[in-house]
Amino acid sequence: MLRACPAPRCVRYFVKQHPRREWCRPSCGNRARVARHSARRRERAAEAPG
Q: Which of 27, 24, 28, 19 is nearest to 3 (CA)?
């Protein structure tokens, strides 16, 4: 199955040969995890009083 990589700023497509494969390469997976972490930190900072 041909899929587009869901990582931020990635324009690659890849063949999904394993059910757990989500990104075209490991660096894209890392970039996606870092983006989620940063978004959570920004959200918490916005909710913090002061």
A: 24
